[in-house]
Amino acid sequence: MAADSKLTKLQRPQAKLQKSSLFRQSLRKLMHNKLAVSGFGVVVFMFVLCFIGPFFSPYTDNKINMAMMNKAPNLTHWLGTDALGRDILTRVMQAGRISLTVGLASMVLSVLLGALLGAIAGYYRGLADQIIMRVADLLMTIPGLPLLFIFGALLSEWKIPTDYRMYIVMLMLSIVNWPGLARMVRGQMLSLREREFMQAAVVLGLRDRRKLFGHLLPNIVPLLIVMATLNIGGAILSESVLSFFGLGVMPPTPTWGNMIDAANNMIDFQDHPWLWIPPGLSIFATVIAINIFGDGLRDVLDPKQKR
Amino acid sequence: MKEIMKIDGLSTVFFTDEGKVRAVDDISFRVREGETVCIVGESGCGKSVTAMSIMGLVEEPGGKVSGGSIDFLGEDLLRLDKNSLRAIRGHEIAMIFQEPMSSLNPVIKIGEQIMEPLIVHQKMKKKAARQRAVELISQVGISRAEQIADSYPHELSGGMLQRIMIAIAISCSPKLLIADEPTTALDVTIQAQILDMLREFKESSGMSMMLITHDLGVVAEMADYVIVMYSGKIVEEGEVVQLFQNPKHPYTRGLLKSKPVMGQRQDELYSIPGQVPNPLELASSCYFHDRCEHCMPVCRTRHPGLKEVGGGQKAACWLYEEAEVHV
User: Fold this and answer.
1) Which of A116, B54, B101, B304 would you label with A43, given CA atoms 20 to 30 Å apart?
2) In this structure, how many other beta carbons lie within 10 angstroms of the beta carbon of residue B215?
3) B94 part of contact set with chain A, CB < 8 Å
4) Of B57, B86, B105, which has the smallest distance from its Cβ to A205's Cβ?
């Protein structure tokens, strides 16, 4: 026994060296893709800026200061102030919190919904498939933006408290986004369920739940990661669009979208560009960075899907 | 000896665009305790479909088991509900597939795949199951078991994966092991090792085995009882020694003749002329008649039944039913 344990100890470092999981391989490949890494860098920077930045700002209370209305960028207000004398930089950071959270949360929700419903449809086929996919088709036939507008208008009509609107916007975005994901997952399931290892799983006497979540879903995790990443960018954009039109998250809660609303009138657009350029750039940089990163991820995780 | 499984009049059909295909047509046989039954036949004769029917892998709407019964320890597998069937699969009947490379889930670690039936059927805790899995891996002759348990299927060779499949199959000590061409995808040296291992487990645990193969060498090495299938029907069956020494059915004779004999040089190996009939166009004749050397008028018109031909052997051939031939 003693000799045995010694042997395994000797083998251990070697074993560590040989270890090459899919995760590590993919990580290594991803690291070689400079563009994707820089995209990821920008995303991380935006997150750090938005979630930690406000702690270093003296203007987080957002006090209305009539003496400081529409001031151009200067040393005390690095990105200037808005029509109510609030610091733009602080508001961009606080808005980022909301926008990024909405983007992330609605992505998580739509991936969960899409993966679950798609998996059930693809695995059980038959009636469950028909019902789920027809609902998905129905949602997909209506263009996303008008649908969101209708939802948004309804929310305003029902006088939903502004505090809750953020959560409802997340929900709305995931309702619009899950059908595409579900289709993708269902397609994969249809092909995976016929594979020989699934027959082997049947023969082992496993429960449906185990087969579905233990055997089938792990096979599409790479696809889900890619889709999820690309989805965040889209969700941030949609949220911004909604908020820009005043149908998403309402002021005074800042989001990048409702800050750009300042560009809505000619005077601000021309004379106070510091009002709308910072949030606009934030959206632009974040979404582009997420998409570049997602593309890099896809090249690594899902080589078959290359465009 | 006690009967483990008794199949009676099993028929399986598949629905194709051109019509109904009888892949397995009214076959009956039994597997006794501790016995190895080999099913031999060429491609498309219904060997694998028989195994799939037993395991309930023939799924509608593609096809279905259209008749008969599969009596496993007093329970008819075809009439069991989903839950009882699940408790039998993997626990009391296990199956090994032909392609080890594609029979394991590519994204789950080997160890976890072995643990699964242990957790599901033996209600083991994760830790105990893991320990048992490592034991099983070394039991099927793989060294560095701990390390192998943590690797993924693509990191192992075909022979190792088939060993893993065996480890999974025997993990719950099944009463019956169905092996569907377990060595076809492997090279010859590994084949012998895998067969040895299967026999060893069979002998030490007393389980029965149903071995499906087209390799007569494997049959000679493993079988106690042989069933020869042709076009979805059993054409001959008998004890292995009997059948090899004294084959009755012209098809069995052809099969045995087309095997190379060691130390004997032949210009050309014997082959049975013609091809397996299209299962869609089976008439009421003997399915083998147009390839048979002894074809008689009656062979073209009626299908022979499986009859006792002496020595515990059964054959389905008009040659042995003289009385009727002259009618």
Assistant:
1) A116
2) 18
3) yes
4) B86
Q: What is the pTM of this model?
A: 0.80
SS3 B151: coil
CA distance A20 to A13: 13
Q: What is the pLDDT along chain A (307 residues), one digit of tens a residue?
A: 444 444 444 444 444 444 556 677 788 888 888 888 999 999 999 999 888 888 887 777 777 777 777 777 777 777 777 777 788 888 888 888 888 888 899 999 999 999 999 999 998 888 989 999 999 999 888 887 888 888 888 877 887 777 788 888 888 888 888 998 999 999 999 999 888 888 888 888 888 888 888 889 888 888 888 888 888 888 888 888 888 887 878 777 888 888 888 777 777 777 788 888 888 888 899 999 998 998 888 888 766 655 4
- The residues, ordered by sequence, that sit 6+ positions from A101 with a Cβ below 8 Å of its Cβ are A166
Tell me whether residues A203 and B117 touch, CB distance under 8 A.
no
Maximum alpha-carbon separation in chain B:
71
Chain A residues inside the 8 Å CB shell of B152: 21-22
**Position B152, amino acid:** Y
Closest residue to A15, CB basis, from B99, B108, B147: B147
Q: Which of A44, A70, A40, A52 is nearest to A300 (CA)?
A: A40
Residue A269, min C-alpha distance to chain B (Å): 54
Token pair 């004379």 is found at A271
Q: Which domains does chain A have, with CATH numbers?
A: 114-301 (1.10.3720.10)
A115, A224 in Cβ contact below 8 A? yes
Closest listed residue to residue B276, CA positions, set B248, B251, B300: B251
**How many other C-beta atoms are found inside a 10 Å radius of the C-beta of residue A182?**
27
- Determine whether the interchain pair B120/A205 forms a contact, defined as Cβ–Cβ distance below 8 Å: yes
Residue of B nearest to A222 (CA): B107
- Of A109, A89, A91, A48, nearest to A235 by C-alpha is A109
CB pair distance less than 8 Å for B97 and A196? yes
CB-based contact A204 B89, cutoff 8 Å: yes
Nearest CA in chain B to A204: B90
